[in-house]
Structures are given as C-alpha cells and as structure tokens.
Specification:
This protein is α/β, with parallel strands linked by helices.
Amino acid sequence: MISTNRITPDQIVQLPPGHVFVFGSNTAGRHGKGAAKTALTWGAVWGQGSGLMGRTYGIPTKPHNLTQRLSIDQIRPYIAEFIQCARNNPDLTFLVTEIGCGLAGYRPKDIAPLFAEARDVHNIHLPLRFWRHIY
C-alpha cells in the first residue's frame, strides 16, 4: 500500500528545515543539468558525485564521462548506501526525486525496485511513480 504522506512532490522549489533533496548525479559530481543543477542551491558540492552534501544527497546514475548511463547493477549499491544513510539519520526527511529517469533515460519501473527496502524507512519519501512499482 502506498504511503500517501511519504510521496515526494513533483516539483521541489523550497526545502523545509530538516529535509534533504535526493537527486540523480554523475560519478564526477558535475551538477550542470536537471535536478543535479537544482541541488547546487541546497549545498551539492561540485566534484562530489555521491553522498550527503549540505541539504542534498547525490545518487549517481551516470558515469564521469556523462555520455552513457550506469547500469542498474552499478546504481544498486549507491541506493543501498543512501537507504543506510537515511536509517542512520532518522531526524532528517529525504525527498527522493525520480533519479535516473531524466538524463540517464531510465523509466520509473526500472529504478523503483531498487528502493524496495525503503518501504519501511519512514523518513524516505519517494515519487508516486516509484511507489506504484514497489507495491
């Protein structure tokens, strides 16, 4: 069952205190387009491709050269690290965007299953299109 109070808004233009913007990144940390560029507003660090940065968290979906995309198997450990980070920081609320579904070219049905373990992590909010593929 989809938890309606844990759905990431389609557009995040403000970030309340205690909230973290989770975005798709690249391993080189070049945050030049899409949600990654927006993440710079809230503390994403140029040159850091993954992890907690300011009020953001980067999950790589593209390699350093930006011309291809990481495989699902390459993205999986980054999502596992993210879920563990959320468990370790229960005082923060993590707003996951549709990572991998923009410039990397994946569909929600491809990426969403990687977040299955987030179902019971109450401080992780996911896009509605991800929830639909988890339950």
